[in-house]
Amino acid sequence: MLLSFDTKLLRYAELAVKIGVNIQKNQYLYVSCSTDNLKLAEIITKIAYENGAKQVFVDLSDDRLVRTRYEKAPKDSFDFYPPWKIQEREWLAEQGAAFLSIVSQNPDLLKDIDHEKIMTFQKASGQALANYYTMMRADKFSWTVIAAPSKQWAAKVFPHLPEEQQVEALWEAIFAATRTDQDEPVNAWKTHDEQLHNKADYLNKKQFKFLRYQAPGTDLTIELPKKHIWTGGSSVNIYGNTFMANMPTEEVFTAPLKTGVNGFVSSTKPLSYSGNIIDQFTLTFKDGRIIDIQAQQGQDILASLVATDEGAQYLGEIALVPHQSPISQSGLLFYNTLFDENASNHLAIGNAYSFCIEGGKEMSSKELLSHGLNQSLTHVDFMIGSANMDIDGIAADGQIEPIFRNGNWAF
Fold first, then answer.
1. Distance between CA atoms of 119 and 293, rounded to whole angstroms?
2. Which ranges in 207-322 belong to alpha helices (H)?
3. How far apart are CA 18 and CA 243, in angstroms?
4. What is the pairing mode between strands 289-297 and 276-286?
5. How buried is 108 (Cβ within 10 angstroms: 0-12 exposed, 13-18 middle, 19+ buried)?
6. Residues of the chain whose pLDDT is less than 70?
7. In this structure, are residues 58 and 182 in contact, taking their beta carbons and an 8 Å threshold?
8. Closest CA to 222 of 266, 288, 311
9. Cα distance between residue 162 and residue 235, in whole Å
10. DSSP alpha helix (H) spans, 207-318
11. Distance (Å, whole) CA 9 – CA 18
12. What's the CA gap between 80 and 131, in Å, rounded?
């Protein structure tokens, strides 16, 4: 049976509320959304109230206004982050609120903008919201990220289509990637969640000491910290409620040992970062630290990202995603990390998630660092996977086991 757009949009909103943040009775919900997608925000708000939400707060942004600020505002205004925005996030987090982000930014929003302005604001916002992000990465509250098209983003993904068809095409791609177009989306997500947890359970039992990545342009060895934890799919917050942080998600991930990364790795998909595209880049590591950066596009932006702070020179996440994942098989390049990272093995520059090590949720930043988990103001995923990538797990006794072959799971 063919479903109407409105039916699929309603299903998508229900997934975001019921599976994504898993709203609870008398819980606050904070929704961040662009003006392009007020209809989706309205539907989400309605469903949240119908499922017991106490109050829904919607924070709106507009790409045109963001671009205008970067074009016209004085440079010395970009190191300011509104204190009332900090207080809002932290207060809601402390009250056990859920946070739902609807991303739709134009990948080229800040093209040709002074990158010093971009990086100054990125650093200021990272510092201002450090406590909020610390709580988020320790599962102190439920949160999820979903996507919805903007005209500019749709045009980037589907430049070959007539303009009037681009947004519809991106919607259909999003519905497919999030299993919204399946007969029973909620049950489909529960089955998928179980499969991801099974992969994570296997890797946790193995407790490999190293992972070795090999592919064209990549020869990288990553040491894993003692008592590391692989995770994937749903998480559990401190109140015992499950939530799905990203929709879609196809990854199983953990944290590397901060000082245990050596070799070089090449990107396989463009990285959309702060309204700019970074593409065809290679990073070289020694004892965990990035010692060389080469990029065909966006090298200055990438260099500025790595210079954000000391921790931005190291990795905070390693994630395994099979090449045969639905998003990869679609053949689409989304120019959006939420989707592209779920089509490819990827790594993340910057901060590690505290739940990726035993007892990490209760550790301070200093304690996490002492156990080998990187700390940083930033966390940026970049894609490295392909059909040509092999990954081996290496045990403490030197025994080698295939983890990926030709881009897909080997077990």
1. 17
2. 299-306
3. 9
4. antiparallel
5. middle
6. 1
7. no
8. 288
9. 40
10. 299-306
11. 14
12. 17
**Rounded distance, CA 355 to CA 139, Å?**
8
Report whether 289 contacts 313 (CB < 8 A).
yes
Take residue 70 and report the two structure tokens written for it: 């970067």
Cα(132)–Cα(88) distance, rounded to whole angstroms? 10
- pLDDT tens-digit map of 46-63: 999 999 999 999 999 999
Element containing residue 98 per DSSP (H, E) = strand 98-103
pLDDT for position 1: 65
Q: Measured between alpha carbons, how far is 89 from 97 in angstroms, rounded to an integer?
A: 9
Percent of the chain that is helix, strand, coil (3-state, to 5): 40, 25, 35
How many Å from the N-terminal Cα to the C-terminal Cα in the chain?
Answer: 36
Measured from the Cβ of residue 291, the count of other Cβ atoms closer than 10 Å reads 12
- Smallest Cα–Cα separation from 146: which of 47, 244, 5, 266? 244
The closest of 171, 155, 152, 170 to 275, measured between CA atoms, is 152
Could you tell me the CA-to-CA distances from 175 to 60, 170, 248, 393 in Å, in that order?
23, 9, 10, 35
Taking the CA atoms of 202, 206, 207 and 208 in sequence, report the sign of the dihedral they define: negative
Does an H or E element contain 291, and which? strand 289-297
E strand or H helix at 13:
helix 5-15
Examine residue 82 and say whether the peptide bond preceding it is cis (omega within 30 degrees of 0). Answer: no
Q: What phi-psi label fits residue 367: left (phi over 0), alpha (psi between -120 and 50 degrees) or beta?
A: alpha
At 18 the pLDDT is 96
**In whole angstroms, how far apart are CA 12 and each of 31, 115, 172?**
15, 35, 11
Contact yes or no for 56/45 (Cβ under 8 A) = yes
Return the pLDDT at 2: 82
Q: Measure CA 332 to chain center.
A: 18
Q: What mean pLDDT value characterizes the chain?
A: 96
pLDDT in tens, 85-103: 999 999 999 999 999 999 9
Pairing of strands 28-34, 98-103: parallel
Q: Where are the alpha helices (DSSP H) in 229-325?
A: 299-306
**Contact between residue 217 and residue 269 where contact means Cβ atoms under 8 Å apart:** no
Q: Give the model's pLDDT for residue 183.
A: 87
**How do 55-61 and 28-34 pair as beta strands?**
parallel
Handedness of CA 398, 399, 405, 411 (dihedral sign): negative
